[in-house]
Design a protein that fits this description.
globular; DUF4127; DUF4127 family protein; five-stranded parallel sheet; Rossmann fold
Length: about 500
């Protein structure tokens, strides 16, 4: 089988991660040339994308495509570019052309509902968001509260929020959202017309109230109207959707999943970047990947073990108020993992106790476990990102795999999520001179030296302790940064026979 992949951008979790999982199954995977893909906030070239897709569609079996990359230059450029709706829809027609010419090509698409960023990032958002982010967030929340409740007090808050913003900025910001929503509505039409096999519309870095929630309701209403829910998923997520759709595309039946938390309160845990409790989030991610939750372990095709906060995620490590409290018992959870890893049912681990990296206490407790027996591991960025990756690992575990390629994918997540995001990124930041979270500027070279200095020995030690006995060799490339910020590292590696 040959897979064509158009990712949201070129970061390792969005590009290399799905490619690794596909290669572990022996799939040939083709991706567009660099010119066709975005570089942070610089959009990819549609002409190059069009040429690539037309050239390779005849030999493809499955196409997984991010609509923002195809139509607006990338997931991040889609928040910034002024491309008119008419041009975006014209680019979307390429999928209709490809499907007519190659009806056997199965197209799995996803679009990202524009986020309302939690911080004032002027590079990933529109430039003015660096100055007006707080006011735009206030408007977003006030607008949605009034739309839902229609209370006079909410009307007053909305009017105050609107008055606090320059009219031209608010108009530009809202019109960008409206354009992208119209693109997603047209994608629903393509699904109804048979151009697409399945469509995911995901909410990036969302909250219970806001313009993303408003967009979600409009998209859900159209899906209701057209009776498309058997082939549509609308839920919180973004970067991980390529691996979710890979799992769905390769699924021959609905897989049964037994979910095991590190706390009996897990279903109700609050996630910082999602609009719903964890139990509902897991249900949504399982459905998108072609899976369903079951109540008994003996029914399961794989186990999804989830490390949770006692009540709510925290950005502070360690957190003894909402995460690491008496509301969860990590030693017992590790005991469960030890027993489960001795059984034949695959086990994949999602660590969502904290966003943006692993729970350091759990990672320490896991060091006596046979980590190479895990079907999957994930602890990166949002809870939705982590869950999507962990579920995809589990959903693909029952298929024949190339062991060395699977170890590459597993080790890559552990190095990035546990070592770098969970621990070493903060140590790099401490050794720099008050670096900006958005742009390192002249400190980038020093930052990359520190990333390599700290990550390489830890990665090799992880390999020696948990993977060297598998009979393969590890080749590490030099770690560096994906973009001029510490948030995303690149850790090249290859596992060789």
């Amino acid at each position: 089988m040959r897979l064509l992949l158009i990712p949201p951008d070129t970061r390792p979790p969005t590009l290399e991660h799905p490619v690794q999982l596909a290669r572990a199954l022996g799939l040939e995977t083709l991706t567009p040339p660099p010119a066709a893909l975005p570089d942070l906030n610089v959009p990819g070239d549609f002409g190059a994308m069009q040429d690539w897709l037309r050239a390779h569609a005849p030999e493809g079996d499955v196409l997984i495509v991010c609509l923002e990359t195809l139509c607006l230059g990338g997931m991040i450029p889609a928040r910034r570019v002024t491309t008119p709706l008419e041009e975006a829809l014209r680019r979307l027609q390429l999928l209709e052309e490809i499907k007519r010419a190659h009806p056997g090509l199965r197209i799995y698409a996803y679009g990202v509902i524009v986020r309302v960023a939690h911080d004032n990032d002027p590079l990933e958002e529109k430039e003015y968001y660096g100055q007006w982010g707080r006011e735009l967030r206030a408007y977003s929340t006030a607008f949605d509260r009034f739309e839902r409740h229609r209370l006079e007090e909410d009307r007053a808050l909305l009017e105050a929020a609107r008055a606090a913003l320059p009219p031209e900025i608010l108009t530009d910001w809202v019109s960008t959202r409206e354009r992208n929503r119209a693109l997603h509505l047209r994608a629903l039409d393509l699904l109804a017309e048979g151009v697409l096999e399945h469509l995911c519309l995901t909410l990036d870095d969302t909250t219970p109230y806001g313009l993303a929630a408003f967009d979600r309701r409009l998209l859900e209403a159209r899906t209701d109207e057209r009776g498309l829910w058997r082939r549509v998923d609308i839920y919180p997520g973004a970067d991980e959707v390529p691996v979710t759709l890979l799992a769905r595309a390769l699924s021959e039946r609905t897989q049964n999943v037994y979910v095991r938390y590190s706390s009996l309160l897990g279903d109700h845990a609050e996630m910082i970047y999602e609009d719903r409790p964890l139990g509902e989030l897991i249900k949504a991610h399982l459905r998108a990947a072609g899976c369903r939750r079951v109540d008994r372990l003996e029914q399961a095709d794989f186990v999804l073990a989830v490390n949770v906060p006692a009540t709510r995620q925290s950005n502070v490590r360690p957190d003894f108020v909402t995460v690491d409290t008496a509301g969860r018992h990590l030693p017992e959870f590790v005991d469960f993992l030890e027993g489960a890893l001795s059984e034949p049912t695959p086990v994949t681990l999602a660590d969502v106790a904290y966003p943006n990296g692993a729970d350091p206490r759990l990672w320490q407790l896991m060091q006596d476990l046979p980590l190479a027996r895990l079907a999957g591991y994930s602890a990166w960025n949002t809870a939705g990102n982590t869950l999507g990756s962990a579920i995809a690992f589990g959903a693909l575990a029952g298929r024949p795999r190339l062991r060395e390629r699977h170890l590459e994918a597993l080790l890559a997540r552990m190095i990035d999520d546990a070592l770098y995001q969970g621990e070493l990124r903060a140590r790099v930041r401490e050794r720099l001179d008050n670096p900006s979270p958005y742009d390192l500027g002249p400190q980038r070279a020093r930052a990359e030296e520190l990333v390599a200095e700290l990550v390489e020995p830890r990665a090799r030690a992880l390999w020696e302790r948990h993977f060297a006995q598998e009979g393969f060799r590890l080749r590490l490339g030099r770690p560096h940064l994906a973009w001029p910020r510490l948030f995303t590292g690149v850790f090249p590696l290859e596992v060789e026979a």
